[in-house]
Amino acid sequence: METDKLEQRQVLLNGLNITIRPITPEDNSAIADVIRNSFIDNKIDHLEGVSLHDPALASLSHAYTSEKSGYWVATLNDQVVGGVGVAQLLGASEEYGEMQKLYLDKSVLGIGLGRCLIDLSIKKAREFGYKYLYLETLEELSSAVSLYEQFGFEHIEGSIGNTGHGSCEICMLKTL
């Protein structure tokens, strides 16, 4: 499993050469900035009970060290422009993984990077042995919701587990 976490891949999106690779401690500050700016850009930075306030935000590389978890960053010209994580869903059975902290810098919106990261998270969740992949999001992020639907995520009533994200009113689940 450890060698799998080390893989890196290049994708060409709209003429941009994007590298997707596992997070390193050197990426912590940059991905935290991408996440914070995404909340500001979407005018949702005032909300409580969202991943913006997760204690691990400042050190995501340390938050994804367990065997069935990982966080991957996307870089353009060695600058972090997005990321996504997968980990066991806290408070749920071991069959449930959670897609976490999928955020993109506004400079790379609309080029297909979100699709690549969702696809990666589904692939990794399967490799980690999860049977279900869960996510929570906000109504304000409707374009993301429609993208999740395209990947087979279905709306479910109520949350699963204990994510601590009480402001997220949309819960979705994909059978892997």
UniProtKB/TrEMBL annotation:
Instruction: Give one GO term, molecular function aspect.
Output: N-acetyltransferase activity
Q: Which UniProt keywords apply?
A: Transferase
Note the superkingdom of the native organism.
Bacteria
Task: Name any one Pfam family assigned in the record.
Answer: Acetyltransf_1
Entry keyword annotation includes Transferase: yes
Q: Which PROSITE patterns match?
A: GNAT
Would the keyword Aminoacyl-tRNA synthetase be found if you checked this record's keyword annotation?
A: no
Q: Which InterPro entries match?
A: Acyl_CoA_acyltransferase, GNAT_dom, NAT_camello-type
Please state every residue range assigned to the domain named N-acetyltransferase. Answer: 18-176
Q: What is this protein called?
A: Putative acetyltransferase
Which species? Answer: Vibrio diazotrophicus
